[in-house]
Amino acid sequence: MFDSSTTEDGAAAGILRGAEAAYRARISAENELLGWAVAWADTWPAESITEDQLRVSGGARGVRPGGDGTPEVNDLAVATFGAKIDKGYVATLGFLGDALDLRDRLPGLWAKITNCEVIGWQGCKVARMTCQLTFEQARAVDVEVADHAGLVPWPKLERLTQAAIIRVDGERIEREAAEAKKKRGVWLSQTDEHGLKGIYGRLTPPEAIRLYARIQEIAACLPLGTATADERRADAMAMLGNELQATEVVARHRQPDLFDLDLEAAVQPAPGGDGAVEETELHPSLRDRPVVPSPESAIFRAAVEQLFRKLKPADLLPKATLSVYVDADALERGTGVCRVPGVGPTALGVVKDWLGHCSVTVRPVIDLNDPPPPVDRYEIPPRHRRHLALRQPASSFPWSTAMSGLDLDHVIPYLSRKRGGPPGQTGVDGLTPTSRTEHRLVTHGGWQRRQPEPGTMIYRSPYGDVYVTNHAGTHALGSGSFAQLTWAACTGRAAA
Description:
Elements: H1 12-43, H2 51-55, E1 62-63, E2 73-74, H3 75-84, H4 89-105, H5 107-114, H6 120-129, H7 135-145, H8 154-181, E3 185-188, E4 199-202, H9 205-221, H10 229-239, H11 243-254, H12 263-267, H13 279-282, H14 295-310, H15 313-316, E5 325-326, H16 328-333, E6 337-340, E7 344-347, H17 348-354, H18 382-391, E8 407-410, E9 431-434, H19 436-444, E10 448-453, E11 456-460, E12 466-470, E13 473-478, H20 481-489
Antiparallel strand pairs: 1-2, 3-4, 5-6, 6-7, 8-9, 10-11, 11-12, 12-13
Protein name: DUF222 domain-containing protein
Pfam families: DUF222
């Protein structure tokens, strides 16, 4: 039970130590339970079921809770173990399966769990993600992800696991994606007490992005008024039910002069004429056609044709981009893993299906071994931003999961030339990505950081805890003498 009296009269440093101790105890207890689960499964293997029990209707049977390569267990023993840990039969079966998968199919990850280097629930999630793989495929995934476990936050470990699964079992992933595509649809909710309905759709990412871009496009063309952004998007979505109206709204916004055509002038008699207007005079293309009895119809067609001649279809298309990063070797093979921002690791075959009806532009990724030269200004050029986005797509802050909307901050505070600053202060090796909140922590929250080499950052909290972050993840050094010596030995100055 929590007792604030044990935290040095509630001092902040004592609270942090208590929280850390509680978290470490939680990891130890959670991981120990996985060990007991494996021990129980080993105590009650399928071989423990006697011939007499097998002959009895409803007697004990062997069941395999884990994946390929794991042992069967006595199914009646499963419920007994579950009763002790407050789980029902099905939940216990899954828990035992996770534990056996970790020990037998993911040994690298299991070793980290037994050493309390990674919390058990993350290992269980990886076990479930890989449960459909063969024994050999699961071992291959383990080789790829085990080193990262415990050093990166779960979202990144999940993406690494997804990418590894695609590499070893891409054909199955593509088949499942094709089956899942058949479950696309659009559904209406019940009307609520205020007379409003919800509409829900399941689409492929390009379809969803294109539709949302269209809604955003129409919403941006509507009069501002007092409506919120959400209300304007709702109005725009409703307007999709009348596509002609939606197109007119966008066309009027993009080409204000498009509807300046004076139709009344088109039907007025020319000065000095007899006042009669012939269809062929209004629309020469009708001269070789049979005479149409209604002059009004001909006038309308002529006006519409004139309108469409002035129309620029490209201006009516929603502006949306789906970025896909793929290795050149994967393109040549036709199989592999693509990185799609906002989606995650995706099989190349699935991406091909997505982009079948899209306009695709292939751009070679810049050579990360050839960084752009530093510049003598505070503002960061687009080329430098692109280089860093590819070299380091995530925040450098300890345990951060931020990957979008990142600030690029000068590790050493920028000093203008007028104030004696050196030339070339804005270069890719002197910038680091962080979220806006993390940026504020360094600027105003008492956190410090240093950069011993490009791609590696050392952070120190206001209470002396030191963290090293790099491509492998976050390495917590604590606040002891080794951590402080590491901080002191780091070259570079603290960033503000």
